[in-house]
Amino acid sequence: MDFDDFQPLLARAQSHAAHFIDALPERFVGARAGREEMMVALDAPLRDAGEPGEAVLDLLAASAPRGAQACAAPRYFGFVIGGTLPVALASDWLVSTWDQNAGIHVISPLAAAVEEIAARWLLELLDLPRESGVGFVTGCQMAHFTCLAAARHGVLRRVGWDVEADGLMGAPRIHVVASAEAHVTVDVALRYLGMGTRSLVRVESDEQGRMRLEHLRDVVASLDGPVIVCAQAGNVNTGAFDPLRGIIQAARERGAWVHVDGAFGLWARAAAGTRPLADGIDLADSWATDAHKWLNVPYDSGVAIVRNAEDHRAAMTVSAAYLVQTRGAERDAVDWVPEFSRRARGIPVYAALRTLGRDGVADMVERCCAHARRFAARLGAAPGVRVLNDVVLNQVLVRFGEDDERTRSVVSGVQQEGTCWASGTTWHGMAAMRISVSNWATTEEDVDRSVEAMLHVHRELAARAATSTT
After folding, report:
1. What value does the CA radius of gyration of the chain take, rounded to a whole number of Å?
2. Domain 91-352, what fold?
3. Cβ count within 10 A of residue 66
4. Which one, of 259, 296, 261, lies nearest residue 185 by Cα?
5. What is the pTM of this model?
6. What percent of the chain has pLDDT over 90?
7. ∠ CA(462), CA(436), CA(412), 5° rounding?
8. From residue 29, how far is each of 20, 23, 55, 192, 421 by CA, in Å?
9. Smallest Cα–Cα separation from 300: which of 289, 309, 311, 292?
10. How does residue 324 score in pLDDT terms, banded at 50, 70 and 90?
């Protein structure tokens, strides 16, 4: 291989990518193949001499229409997965082309400057304290890890314990308070940080998954020692927001650190129509979010934000004799994230924000929420269909036939039919379809086509059930 190989291979990859993107609006949304077919297509003995790069690209591209879900398609409503803005995808290609290790400034002044600017823009857009530390991580899992590491440092520093030097053995026990509906990534972060899930104290939640403020007050008043409270902006099932201002006030009275899981809900701050949902969120101590959700940049892209930048930096930074770290205003990303070597994932964030501007981000958020309300109105009006949640953001929970088996069958049938793709969940003991509208490309027509497909599957199942009982 030599440098002459780049151009034909990149041109071939671009052609395959263009075909994949062109097919997104109308293709079968789910994956048609499972492990067995993919293994048959892709598995082979590793050859001594290797294979031509063109053939490898062709093989991968041929496998994608059947083995890859169309997660970036306008009728993909599974989990909480955003699409990919054209400029975000294009800039991500440049990131791979430049192949910069964005860990320290001296390796890539370009990546460091772009991430410094993107961090500032994010704080402005989300109206969070401008002095906050910002780290670009893989996703909300590592954003929680980063923020809770800073929280661990901060609450132990206040009682005179240096956790980075002395570890947790012998340290005052930290109590972590979270809602009964907190996302599992908070639990996992506690495991990674050595605090363990038994440090968690659960607070009751209401029918929409919001933390009960009165119970929180009782819980924090009963605890001795350092406390971290984890609140939620956007329940992963309902989209509901915890009463953030009240939670933060109660936590402050106790001297607790408040961390907010805003994986997708933090973006509500960017739009006037949804901003009131996040009232008081700027008073917290740390925030975790995903850019690959509502900012619609490619995976993987999460953001960790910590009000006290010194706590953030102290929890993350490393040094070594061979590193050339900055002594001035330059940004070393290794000071703000757990990773040492890392791709310059802040560049697609910069590109998306610069292209969209404030109004573009706000419009994307508000359009997705309007589409979610349209889903709820049309499905909720159909016989035998019930919407289980108050649709305040972009999440819709739907139940069919007041029956778990019927609901799961509708979810499975919709996935097999292929017009759209939505995932299933269990909400307060009931099976439900979970519809998450997170894609810039989704239109009202996409919503209406998806509703018709869902109701068609529902009616067919109802007709079969009626026939079988006669």
Report:
1. 24
2. Aspartate Aminotransferase; domain 2 (3.40.640)
3. 14
4. 261
5. 0.96
6. 95
7. 35
8. 12, 10, 26, 35, 6
9. 292
10. low
